[in-house]
């Protein structure tokens, strides 16, 4: 959902479309509590999830004016449609840039909304939606690269003196309602919430090894080069290189070949073996306050 004045967005992940009504009431209550104002108008497309009987009755009982677009005319709800496209495109870039599997598309979408709410927009003359909604500038010092390797501090019982003090994982976003980060442990397949995290923002996790270790996000060459190309030293002239028949011209002694040096031959497997099986996606349908 998008506020038409501030362009501030709220996000609720749904398993099925019949959960739209409960999500709408949740967002409406939170928005009215934060702003101190009542919802007056609600603009949507003509999807069945927005035009159900219980939804219509609820809007009538609370005095909410309903605006719906004409059939197959999404441009009449252009603010939400454009924001939906921005969210999906940013989520796809977040996944691809650090080679995060598509199964984490929900985390990428939440981070995309989180960042867009804190990014300046031309519709607000350079202000951020967060500032327009809350009346203060957002803090951005805590922002980190989505999908990078993160080391969460181990706390609680069971940590002896010689045990590791951190657990490597993948940074997946920010815990709502808490000053903490969300870090996923691919080895144990657990989600950790911690405030004590060290980030290596230039590294991504190597998901091709069953998610067991981290790897560099930058292109690199292997340390082992099975194939090598030998090139003659350019400082020595061509006449210094003797062939099999040159020994007769030099008193029967075969002249030594010119010294050479080896150039490593980069293989074709230097890139990441992972190709995400799925990407973030979803319906372009949306609602606007």
Describe this structure in words.
- This protein is an alpha+beta fold and 289 residues long.
- 22% of the residues lie in helices and 20% in strands.
- The protein contains five helices and eleven strands.
- The strands form three sheets. It has a six-stranded antiparallel sheet. It has a three-stranded mixed sheet with strand order 2-1-11, covered by helices on one side.
- The longest helix has 20 residues, at 78-97.
- It is elongated and about 65 Å long.
- Residues 217-284 have low confidence and may be disordered.
Which radius of gyration do the C-alpha atoms yield? 29 Å
CATH class of the domain at 17-139: Alpha Beta
Query: Largest sheet, order of strands side by side?
Result: 6-5-4-3-7-8
How is the main sheet built? 6 strands, antiparallel
State the fourth-level CATH superfamily of the domain at 17-139.
Ribonuclease H-like superfamily/Ribonuclease H
> What is the typical, i.e. mean, pLDDT?
81
């Amino acid at each position: 959902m998008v506020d038409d004045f501030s362009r501030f967005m709220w996000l609720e992940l749904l398993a099925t479309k019949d959960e739209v009504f409960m999500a709408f009431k949740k967002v409406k209550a939170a928005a009215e509590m934060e702003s101190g104002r009542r919802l007056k108008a609600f603009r949507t497309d003509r999807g069945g999830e927005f035009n159900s009987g219980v939804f219509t009755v609820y809007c009538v009982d609370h005095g909410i004016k309903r605006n719906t677009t004409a059939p197959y005319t999404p441009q009449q709800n252009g603010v939400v449609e454009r924001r939906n496209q921005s969210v999906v495109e940013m989520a796809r870039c977040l996944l691809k840039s650090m080679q995060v599997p598509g199964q984490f598309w929900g985390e990428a979408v939440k981070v995309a909304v989180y960042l867009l709410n804190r990014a300046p927009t031309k519709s607000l003359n350079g202000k951020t939606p967060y500032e327009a909604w809350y009346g203060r500038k957002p803090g951005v010092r805590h922002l980190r690269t989505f999908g990078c390797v993160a080391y969460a501090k181990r706390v609680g019982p069971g940590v002896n003196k010689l045990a590791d003090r951190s657990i490597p994982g993948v940074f997946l976003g920010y815990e709502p309602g808490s000053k903490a980060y969300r870090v996923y442990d691919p080895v144990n397949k657990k989600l950790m919430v911690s405030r004590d995290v060290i980030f290596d923002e230039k590294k991504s996790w190597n998901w091709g090894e069953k998610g067991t270790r981290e790897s560099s996000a930058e292109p690199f060459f292997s340390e082992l080069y099975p194939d090598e190309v030998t090139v003659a030293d350019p400082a020595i002239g061509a006449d210094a290189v003797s062939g099999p028949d040159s020994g007769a011209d030099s008193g029967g002694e075969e002249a030594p070949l010119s010294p050479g040096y080896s150039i490593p031959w980069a293989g074709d497997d230097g890139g990441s073996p992972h190709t995400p099986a799925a990407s973030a996606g979803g319906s372009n349908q949306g609602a606007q306050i």
